[in-house]
User: Fold these one by one.
Assistant:
Number 1:
Amino acid sequence: MSIRILIERDLNRFWKYKWWVTGIIVTNLSDLLIMSLIFSNIVRKEFVPEYLKFTAPGVTMMALFISAFSIGREAAQEIRRRYHHYLLTLPYNDWELALGKILAGMIRGIIYALPFLLLTFIIVGIPSPIGLLVILGVVAVTSLSMSSYGIALSALVEKIDIYVTVRSLSYYLIFFFSTIFYPEDALKHLTQINAAYSIVLEISRVNPISIAAEIIRNTVGIAQAAQSNIPLFIILNLIITVLGITVYIRALRKK
Amino acid sequence: MRGMFLIIEKDLRKIRRYKFFITMRYTWFIIQVLVFGLAISKIVALKDFYRYYLVGVYSSILFLMSIYTGYDIISEAEYGLFDYYLSLPIPRKEFIMGKIIGSGMSSLIYTTPMLITILSLIGVNSLVNLILALFSALLFSLGISGLIISITMMVKSGDISDILFGAISTLLVRLSTVYYPIAIMPDYYKIFASINPLSHAAELLRFLLIGEYYSFPPEITITLLIGLAIGMSSIASIIIEKVIEGGVWR
């Protein structure tokens, strides 16, 4: 049997959560078309001349993260209910099971992020063909690693309340310890006032969603973007993906 | 009246069960205040924006906690607890008012750690104003609890209520003066912000806690909050009374 069936199964399940999907679409759209639009009237131009253009790539990556990460919620349920024992009786080895699940999460992320990416292009302008390829690559790689991260988390934490806590903590770190809503310069200013904020700055520099947003910003020519660290982006996402697969396989093999 | 107090007491006792939930909300609040709030204040040109933001974010958490009471009603209804309540020797009106007041007071208590945090950051300018702020917050949470209970009882579905609450809270928080004053909004958003109860709660709390208002004068906001509390409680009591008989859920 091909892992295509596993991927299809997980993808079909995504569309069953149509209300959940509607909810996150409302949230992501309102972040962009209400909050960012209004903030663009009061954000200091020396920091960000066009705030809506600045946040559009960040909100797109945030949307991608939520969607790709959602596969972890289902993996957590499967592990808690010992449903994965049933999966192991199927004619797949555990690597195929892990790969199928992670790829399904990745495709979910890409499908959900594409309309937001189009909206971003409407707001910031269409990139060059090479730029477009870079952006699509960034979207695919980030989606893969975030899906993997979601699944790893589900395998590491079996108790539902602890899982919800860790998941929430991940959301806080990814969204607020990042450059989704404010440029790196704002975080540098905070660090000058209080050295403790260097933690926020350093986390934002290794936050894959932040780096991905910065790469998109640089590709579409947003001047306030921090320098894109593409090698770090690739290494980080690779590590997260490999770790995610390894942790999930270990959970599958556990009796 | 004894029946009403018993219902209120029961709702307030439940707070102890939600320690984990409150801790999570508080962590979220602290990160919002100390990371997002400070970072966004650095790039916003509005004078004293951080203080503006602090009171706004408290209003939004009070609003979200008031919405959370709706989930409590859903779980009570789904577990058949409402049918049990109906068998108690408590008059309907007392039960309904007890439920609304209990939900409103619970929301206020849930948000006490957040209120203490923002007061420690902005300071307390007057004890009278603080008491008035608490009273205004209670009026607001009573109104929102009434609204949420009404929606829950009309929809009678946990899933649909969940989506409705999510959409309502997302849109109302963003289309309000929680994060930004009405003057800087595009005209097409101003109308929503002007009729949004969250805008008025945030503005009144700003007036009482930091001595300034940015979008609406306090005499308008307090009138609207009193109207919201009385109006929504009355509507909720009418709806509950109509729906509650003959099997409350489905």
Number 2:
Amino acid sequence: MTQDTADQTGNGLVLPRYRRDDVDAHPPLLSPGYKSTAVRAPRQPLIYLPHRLTEITGPLLGEGRLGELDHDLTRQHDGEPQGQRIIVHGRVLDGDGRPVPHTLVEIWQTNAAGRYRHAVDNWPAPLDPNFDGVGRALTDERGHYRFVTVQPGAYPWKNHDNAWRPAHIHFSLFGRAFTQRLVTQMYFPGDPLFFQDPIFNSVRDPKARERMIARYDHAGTVPEWALAYEFDIVLRGRESTPFEDEDDDE
Amino acid sequence: MSERLGVTPAQTVGPFLHLGLRWPDGPYVVPEGTPGAFWIRGQVFDGAGAPVVDALVESWQADPDGRFDHPDDPRGARPPAVPGFRGFGRSETDAHGRYALLTVKPGPLPDPDGAIEAPHLTLSVFARGLLHRVVTRLYFPHDPANAGDPVLRSVDAERRGTLLAGPAPDGFRFDIRLQGENETVFFAV
Ligand SMILES: [Fe+3]
């Protein structure tokens, strides 16, 4: 790391620098279409926090958190779950296109009927005794992750009249620093419910919304077994030099 | 290789966050029985003063020597001074909006500008109705280093108190008010 890409100061501490996200990169906390933001979104302006040691470090949580079948949501019970079997895979990258290796990815989703295995989800759709809808994986050296699951369903909620959430998978990512922590949702291409969903549409930039939609990946399908979707996740980028890139390549 | 990519937008954890984010050992930044360990307990409130019963509070902090076991710490990664110290905690709120984290006090940290950061935890709060996490810091009451802390100093004196924990029988209390009167100070990171 060199002086032109990091802060070099009096006490000799040189910290990596993470870029700030664009204003429109994330949804505004107060998004009136999504009703519960009204009492939960802070009203005071956020205070700018320069990144210091606590922000440029973060938990590096590894293998210890994973069970052998955590990445395969179709094999966590004696029988197979109902629904369309799918592979969801992709890479975790930073804003410079560099892979984020060995980072924990946590997912949760409904079953094929659109119901979560959760005490407060009690709409009249069936539970599936063979599906919990919970997965975990670590990215490999190249930042790649892979889950096997079933296509989640849409579900109703009470936000507005006849409100339905488009089918989605919740994703949680750590990256390698506190600044990179991200929780998001993955959507499916061509979903007819996008137009009325205030959570999806809370992201104002249409190009940014596209980044939450997986790509149907025909090459990734397994013949006579499962369809595939590819979903790359981009965490915040770090200012870097060519030298550093070489160091980071594994 | 400097292909700039747009970041993936954040979305709310929604009301069913417990499915994917519940860890049995989540609240334990240090293992139970660690000498000097204490609980940080608090409630999360919404703008109407109602407890937020479906939130998740995550914490990150240095060890008692002010070090991180992380390759990007320019002082070098160092195994924690306390056995089993994870630095990271995660607690969902209960039916009363309460969270709890078992930890030890972090050490002070050098600031790149030459100041000293007072001992602190950084906290992320996730919840239904929060489209993106909100980030705050917890400082310890009566720590002499607080007066010189660059982050506390960057906050208006009237609001600084929202970043200070209070005493509690088994540790400290730190409530988080997402909105309204005494709204907690949240940071843009
Ligand atoms: Fe959901």
